[in-house]
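Protocol step 4 of 6: structure prediction from sequence.
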Amino acid sequence: MDALILAGGENRRMPVTKGFLEINNNKIIESNLELLRNIFKRVLISTNNPELYFYLGVPMVGDVVAYRGPMTGIFSALAMPEVSDVFVTACDMPFINGILINYIVAKWSDMWDAVIPIFNNTPQPMLGIYSKRIVESMEESLKTGKKSLRDFLHEINVRYIQEDEVRNIDREGKSFVNINTMEDLQREGGKICLA
C-alpha cells in the first residue's frame, strides 16, 4: 500500500499554496510527508504543479482526467500500473495522527473497497484507504459528473471505523481538521511562509 497526499486543490481562498502553510513552524506538506514515510514504503503527491514539490524528492502524479477534485487525484493514483491500494490524506490537514493512521491500516482487508473513519457522525473520506478495484467505478462516476467522494462511498463496499473507535485515539478529531481559509489558519495558530 502506498500513501497519497492530495495537493491538487485550486487554492482559491488562500493567498499561498495550502501545503506550504506553517503550523508549529513546520510546513504542513513536510510534516505529513515525514509522518507518512515512517508508516508507508512509498508516498506519492497528487499535484498538477510538480515544480512546487520537486524538492521533496517523492514521486508525483498529475490528474489524468480533466475533472477537478479529490476523487480525480485518488483515481489518477489508482490508475497507475504500479499502485495497488492507497492511504489518502490531504496537504491541508496539519494534525493527522500516526496512531490513527496505523489503526485504519490495521482494519484493511482485501474484502473492502475502502476503509473510512467516521467523526461527528460523518464519514471522513480524506483520511482513509481506497482499493485498486474501484478504479473503473470511480472513472465512471467522474465521467458522469459525480465527483463527491462521500456520495461515491455509497456505491462501494466500505468498512467504516466507528466514531467511538476514532475518539479512543483522537478524542477531538484533530486529524480531520483542514485549513481552507485564513480564519482556519489563525484559529490553529499557523502562519504563512513566504520563503
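Step 5 (inspection) to follow. The longest strand covers residues 114-119.
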